[in-house]
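Customer escalation, tier 2.

The customer says the design service returned an amino acid string that "doesn't look like it belongs to this structure." They asked us to rerun it and document both sides in this ticket. The original structure tokens are below, unchanged.
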């Protein structure tokens, strides 16, 4: 395997443009786009139709020509690489799976390993391993044909095929856009589970804002070929760069913000003289997850709780009233000062 594909891969786009000719003159489908995709992270490209998100992604594996700028993988310009080598080192998932109808499920998964010359037994073992990973028991599904699968099952096979040769990079172009909403949510959860296990560098194109916030480590929001905002989900929710960002996220922005705000971000320094029995909550809990945990400690006699850092050690303090303020609620203290009513999130 080429050194390009050794370990995790960092993708860098610098002032990238894609210009198409038209009868009325040049059209900039992608206009001066720059961002990095961190090794092992999942970056979502999102925007309205015609925003340039799919074209941007397709330039990474040269399915679209780069008109201006550079795209590098681990510091090497993709235009200097052999195109076959480049594409075999990048998994690719599209809508509706793109499976070969005359191949069995196992043979569909093993397409790239077959092109790479893997022995039959190794290809079969890898296909079965990946079918298990995506939730399709190989004894039940390996020898079926695509026509015998549901849409969601076909998409799972498509994900398994993209992983077959163990590429460090996966490109996913609206992979769940053609399935029903219930199946889509199941596939989203499966992708989060798989990504936690295999830690690939993923560029994921979608038009679904909920999907972007659920899956993305970072979100690149595009419009008219340009980047409007590039940041973490929390960045877009708390500090939208323009009215367009606010409008695109929609009316659920406040609710989504609760899902992407963690206790450790709200906590202040612990006050002096705290007793040993003050409740401790994990700092990684989001505000939307905290209701049950806070409720468990209701009636403890304390006006707040310690917040732990990544190692589990208490590092901050948050009062019930501070939490309620974030939620836009109020908490009435009992006459003796004990908290009687804790906000349920």
């Amino acid at each position: 395997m080429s050194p390009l594909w050794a370990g995790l891969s960092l993708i860098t786009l610098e002032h990238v443009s894609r210009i198409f000719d038209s009868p009325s003159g040049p059209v900039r489908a992608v206009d001066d786009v720059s961002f990095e995709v961190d090794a092992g992270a999942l970056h979502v490209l999102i925007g309205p139709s015609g925003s340039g998100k799919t074209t941007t992604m397709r330039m990474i594996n040269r399915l679209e020509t780069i008109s201006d700028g550079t795209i590098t993988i681990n510091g090497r310009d993709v235009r200097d690489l052999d195109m076959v080598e480049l594409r075999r080192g990048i998994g690719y998932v599209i809508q509706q799976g793109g499976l070969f109808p005359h191949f069995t499920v196992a043979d569909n998964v093993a397409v790239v390993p077959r092109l790479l010359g893997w022995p039959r037994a190794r290809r079969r073992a890898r296909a079965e391993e990946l079918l298990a990973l995506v939730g399709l028991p190989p004894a039940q599904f390996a020898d079926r044909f695509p026509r015998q699968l549901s849409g969601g099952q076909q998409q799972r096979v498509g994900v398994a095929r993209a992983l077959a040769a163990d590429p460090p990079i996966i490109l996913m172009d609206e992979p769940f856009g053609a399935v029903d909403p219930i199946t889509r949510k199941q596939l989203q959860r499966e992708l989060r589970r798989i990504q936690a296990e295999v830690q690939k560098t993923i560029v994921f194109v979608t038009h679904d804002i909920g999907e972007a916030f659920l899956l993305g480590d970072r979100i690149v929001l595009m419009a008219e070929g340009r980047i409007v905002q590039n940041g973490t989900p929390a960045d877009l929710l708390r500090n939208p760069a323009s009215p367009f960002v606010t409008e695109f996220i929609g009316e659920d922005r406040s609710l989504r913000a609760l899902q992407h705000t963690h206790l450790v971000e709200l906590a202040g320094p612990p006050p002096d003289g705290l007793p040993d029995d003050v409740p401790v909550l994990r700092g990684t809990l989001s505000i939307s997850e905290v209701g049950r945990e806070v409720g468990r400690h209701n009636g403890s006699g304390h006006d707040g709780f310690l917040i732990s850092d990544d190692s589990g050690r208490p590092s901050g303090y948050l009062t019930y009233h501070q939490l309620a303020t974030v939620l836009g609620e109020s908490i009435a203290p009992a006459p003796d000062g004990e908290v009687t009513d804790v906000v349920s999130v």
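Tier 2 assessment: The sequence is consistent with the input. The radius of gyration is 24 Å. The longest strand covers residues 27-37. Sent an explanation to the customer and offered a walkthrough call.
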